[in-house]
Amino acid sequence: MEDELEPIIDSDMDSMFVLPLSIIPLETPALQSAKLIKNVRLRSVVEIFADAQTGSGQVDIESLAKMFNWPPDELHPDLAVLRRLALLPSYDVYSLRISLREHGIAVNDYSALKLSPDKARELTKYMVMFTRPLMKLIYADEAVNIESYDDLLKLFRDPDIKKARQRLEQMAQSLNIDIFDVPRFLEDYGDTFLSLSYFRHCLDRLEPYFTACVQSLDPIRRHFQLKQDVNLMRSCDQIEEVINSISASITGRLEVFERRTSEMWANISQEEFRTVKTMIERYHVTIGAALCGLTVKMNSFARMFPRPTVGGPVKRADFLMAEILQGIELIRDTEKRYAV
């Protein structure tokens, strides 16, 4: 049986492309239950409702004034906020933390900008990659059971192995802090490791979608009639180039962060921690923007062509030109626009 591609569905706060407007202080009550989402062309629209039977009710931001009877001769405060939100390249929580502050957009509760507990647990296997050097440093070859980052912090709050306590004291001295402050110190940086785990997870799960989309270009290129269309052939090359180059760029950047994080444990100091943390956060918006665009595009592809046997070359060519190609330059140029 062929593997079937299913659209990636996350909770609102775990999503790359969904911003629940309940976290933004808006004056219009009806907007509190709405969401701002990136559509397949990577334009931000307000989703008033979404249902399996009725579909998604999307409204262009500029059409809201008429919908809610806002005064036509003055700029409604909600419209001003939504216009600024629409410019943000990604709605993942890590990009939002930075972008909302940079754009001066208020939030009801900044603590709400975090991944759900379920997603955090799902990312544990990635977190282990960042914390393994630390575990080796403190616990050496002792058998410890780590299933979540909270488990790790508990070990440091109450180390029950004599050698571990001694090593923990040495670490505290290196950090120039009290031993009892080590768990709190690690907790501050745990979210930075979680952000890397989140982005790595989002990239990894897109791999089968990239493969399916790129493979779907071959029948188009071989089709006796379609291959005569120079513009279509150029567009196929462009789509493949964006998918391959952007995914490779994100992979490379994450590998640099992972290597830098691993090196950090060998030279532990508060200054080293801050340097690594700052370096990672500097690229949150860049990586978020690229992954948001790719996720939206691949989701659209999965909905239309869940299996290789669905849709022939002509139908796929029409879809690629009408949906995938539109707005793809926003993904291609993301490094140039958002890299620091």
Report on the architecture of this protein.
There is one protein chain. The mean pLDDT is 87. It is built from 15 helices and four strands. It is 59% helix and 6% strand. It has 340 residues and is α+β, with helices and mostly antiparallel strands. The radius of gyration is 23 Å and the shape is globular. The chain has two domains: 12-115, no CATH class; 116-340, no CATH class. 30% of the residues are buried. The longest helix has 37 residues, at 230-266. α8 packs antiparallel against α10 (230-266) and α10 crosses α13. A four-stranded antiparallel sheet has the order 1-2-3-4.
Could you list some keywords that capture this structure?
340 residues, four-stranded antiparallel sheet, 6% strand, globular
Question: What order do the helices and strands come in, and which of them pair?
Answer:
Blueprint: E1 18-20, E2 35-38, E3 44-51, E4 55-60, H1 64-67, H2 77-86, H3 93-102, H4 117-122, H5 124-139, H6 149-157, H7 162-175, H8 182-215, H9 217-222, H10 230-266, H11 270-281, H12 284-304, H13 313-324, H14 328-332, H15 334-338
Antiparallel strand pairs: 1-2, 2-3, 3-4
Rg of Cα set: 23 Å
> Portion of residues in helices?
55-70%
Strand content: 5-15%
Helix/strand-derived category reads alpha+beta
Number of helices: 15
Summarize the structure.
The chain is α+β, with helices and mostly antiparallel strands and 340 residues long. The chain contains 15 helices and 4 strands. The protein is 59% helix and 6% strand.
